[in-house]
Amino acid sequence: MLEDANIKLGAVASDVFGASGRAMLLAMMKGESNAEALAELSKGRLRSKIPELRRALEGRVTGHHRFLMDRHWRQMESVETKCASSRRKLRSV
Question: What is the pTM of this model?
């Protein structure tokens, strides 16, 4: 879906779902489209790649893309919650 929007975040960030990637994805879902503003959300070592991030984040995220991102995000959160719950149950055994 990101590729469809011409967002190449995975080409610059090794973990699209790391802290930086999540911050950028959340901002995109909320309507942020400015590549410079999105790149400034990077953290840690990824900050050294801000020029590359700006280019990678110059895309066209439509309302449909944001809708799909939201659906995928909710599904990912659900899976993460279930995994965390399973880990807690295993530790208590």
Answer: 0.86
